[in-house]
Design goal:
single chain; mainly alpha; 4 helices
Length: 141
């Protein structure tokens, strides 16, 4: 139980950092792809849609799961605080509040990853719809 603080700090927060880097990388890659896409090379709408939506599910998955990973970190941090209180007989409210505040950082980190990821996903999905509409207009529907 003594290692729960390290698991929260390095495991959960580290995982959230990795997830944010992945979501940002995919978003940048997709934006660059959308800028360079040549609609004339696609004869089939499904092929175009397949190319445009490639890897978008990762951004959506990160956005929808990051809050839960943050919540897991918070639960582990609260467990560590209660364990410390029980083993040390700690009843100093200042130390308890510090422990709980530090535990909540995982939830905050999860939200800091989730909110931009969902925004990125929605913006990318909107761009996909715009590109498909341009393709349909150019190919007679």
């Amino acid at each position: 139980m003594e290692h729960l603080g390290s698991i929260v700090d390095y495991g959960v927060i580290g995982l959230l950092v990795i997830m944010s880097v992945i979501a940002l990388s995919i978003t940048i890659e997709r934006c660059l792809t959308y800028r360079k896409i040549d609609l004339e090379q696609f004869q089939d709408k499904r092929t175009l849609e397949f190319e445009l939506t490639r890897r978008l599910h990762f951004v959506a998955t990160i956005g929808s799961n990051a809050p839960y990973i943050g919540l897991l970190g918070t639960v582990l941090g609260i467990m560590a605080t209660f364990y410390t209180m029980g083993t040390e007989g700690l009843f100093d409210t200042g130390k308890i509040m510090i422990g709980l505040a530090l535990a909540l950082k995982a939830t905050a980190a999860g939200l800091l990853v989730a909110i931009p990821s969902i925004v990125f996903y929605n913006l990318l999905l909107r761009k996909v719809k715009e590109i498909i509409l341009r393709w349909e207009l150019g190919h007679g529907g």
